[in-house]
């Protein structure tokens, strides 16, 4: 599974031999990504990545998964790329090769000493993938193997267009029915773009609760970025949804627009009003939501929420003021008497896009504006090693949080 560690060992080298370990994969868009480390074999002619330090390359130090999380597009690639898995039913082939000496580029032109292919999967054997179109919804349901019933998670991504399934596939592989829901590119019956209201998400939760393989009283919401805002909004204001718990990554609780609950054009307009960038560099959006307003009407009433919340913050988030929002939310919940429900994981050096572990760090990437269909470059932030450590640590704690609140009874 892609969220599991593996070990790379090279044997049969000469003692004290300088080698480069190189990892290469091809995205479904046809782009190549690579990571590499410099090693010196021990007295037995062996390199063990989990024990030996990389002396340079795309990462350094003892990093058993550095070949993956340090990956970048190969030189000459298109700009603004972000690695994302689209077809979660297909494996990802990771090509790992050994080269003599410490190399920096043009690996494909060099002779390999040895190579192997590691197969990585987002869906465990037996997980079902089901398209969802009923009740006006657009999404994908992932169901673990076995009779159930299982706890369930409504999985919401950010403001980018398209349906993102890979986190839901991983959750189902860990024992949760997971519904990945599209809401930013919603259209009515004749194909006209349409904002959705809270009723859309209530229909999604109802679908989950009525599924025969779901424990109806054990449903959570998991949101990233604008999906995190929506998760908190639903928990605070919906009389229908009432989740058992919530996980939010990179959240701003500042109300971004007006009108419908999902006002992406309004949000983008506000973010771009005070953009801090020049034409050659990515846009920085976080300052457009600062300072955190004092007016409570301009923020979510998070003191209304009555379920446990796990809030994950990247302290180098350049897309939203996640740290400032977390501090303000804590104060609001303390005044409301429910701060005991809030757990904050704050990671120095982590950026906005905190994904499942061993995913290549994306510091900046292209972003498609939904209203104009134009493309801009957005700075998400983060330093590669610190961000990658945050991804691994937070994922393990997210799974532990779900296990605590969805599998165990409150009295346990």
Structure in words:
This protein has seven helices and 17 strands. The protein has an eight-stranded mixed sheet with strand order 8-9-11-10-12-13-14-15, sandwiched between helices. It has two domains: 9-120, Immunoglobulin-like; 128-407, Rossmann fold. The chain is an alpha/beta fold and 412 residues long.
Brief synopsis:
With 412 residues, the protein is an alpha/beta fold.
List the topology elements:
Layout lengths: L8 E2 L7 E9 L5 E9 L6 E2 L17 H4 L2 E2 L18 E9 L13 E7 L7 E5 L6 E5 L6 E7 L9 H8 L3 E5 L16 H13 L3 E11 L1 H12 L8 E4 L14 H10 L35 E6 L7 H15 L5 E6 L16 E5 L6 E5 L4 H24 L5
Parallel strand pairs: 10-11, 10-12, 12-13, 13-14, 14-15
Antiparallel strand pairs: 1-4, 2-3, 2-6, 3-5, 6-7, 8-9, 9-11, 16-17
Number of helices: 7
Q: Beta-sheet strand percentage?
A: 15-25%
Tally of domains: 2
Q: CATH superfamily of the largest domain, please?
A: Alpha/Beta hydrolase fold, catalytic domain
Shape: globular
Domain BAAT/Acyl-CoA thioester hydrolase C-terminal: 196-407
GO molecular function: fatty acyl-CoA hydrolase activity
Protein name: Acyl-coenzyme A thioesterase 4-like
Family: Belongs to the C/M/P thioester hydrolase family.
């Amino acid at each position: 599974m892609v969220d599991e560690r593996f070990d790379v060992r090279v044997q049969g080298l000469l003692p004290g031999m300088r080698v480069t370990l190189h990892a290469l994969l091809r995205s479904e868009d046809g782009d190549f990504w690579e990571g590499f480390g410099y090693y010196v074999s021990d007295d037995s002619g062996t390199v063990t990545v989990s024990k030996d330090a990389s002396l340079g390359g795309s990462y350094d130090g003892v990093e058993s998964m550095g070949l993956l999380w340090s990956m970048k597009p190969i030189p000459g690639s298109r700009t603004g790329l972000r690695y994302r898995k689209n077809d979660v039913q297909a494996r990802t082939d990771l090509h790992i090769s050994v080269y003599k000496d410490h190399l920096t580029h043009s690996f494909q032109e060099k002779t390999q000493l040895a190579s192997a292919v590691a197969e990585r999967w987002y869906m465990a054997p037996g997980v079902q993938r089901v398209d969802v179109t009923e009740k006006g919804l657009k999404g994908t349901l992932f169901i673990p193997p076995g009779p159930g019933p299982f706890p369930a998670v409504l999985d919401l991504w950010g403001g980018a267009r398209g349906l993102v399934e890979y986190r839901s596939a991983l959750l189902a592989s860990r024992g949760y029915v997971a519904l990945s829901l599209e809401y930013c590119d919603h259209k009515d019956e004749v194909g006209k773009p349409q904002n959705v209201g809270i009723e859309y998400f209530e229909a999604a939760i109802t679908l989950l609760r009525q599924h025969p393989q779901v424990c109806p009283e054990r449903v959570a919401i998991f949101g990233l970025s604008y999906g995190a805002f929506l998760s908190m909004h639903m928990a605070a204001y919906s009389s229908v949804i009432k989740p058992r718990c919530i996980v939010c990554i990179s959240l701003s609780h500042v109300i971004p627009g007006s009108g419908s609950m999902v006002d992406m054009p309004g949000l983008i307009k506000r973010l771009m009003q005070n953009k801090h960038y020049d034409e050659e560099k990515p846009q920085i959006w976080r300052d457009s939501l600062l300072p955190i307003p004092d007016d409570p009407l301009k923020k979510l009433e998070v003191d209304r929420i009555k379920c446990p919340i796990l809030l994950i913050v990247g302290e180098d988030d350049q897309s939203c003021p996640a740290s400032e929002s977390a501090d303000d939310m804590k104060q609001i919940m303390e005044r409301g008497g429910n701060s005991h429900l809030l757990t904050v994981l704050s990671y120095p050096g982590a950026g906005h896009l905190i994904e499942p572990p061993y995913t290549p760090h994306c510091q900046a990437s292209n972003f498609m504006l939904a209203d104009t269909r134009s493309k801009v470059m957005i700075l998400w932030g983060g330093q590669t090693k610190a961000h990658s450590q945050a991804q691994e640590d937070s994922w393990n704690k997210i799974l532990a949080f779900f296990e605590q609140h969805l599998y165990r009874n409150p009295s346990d």
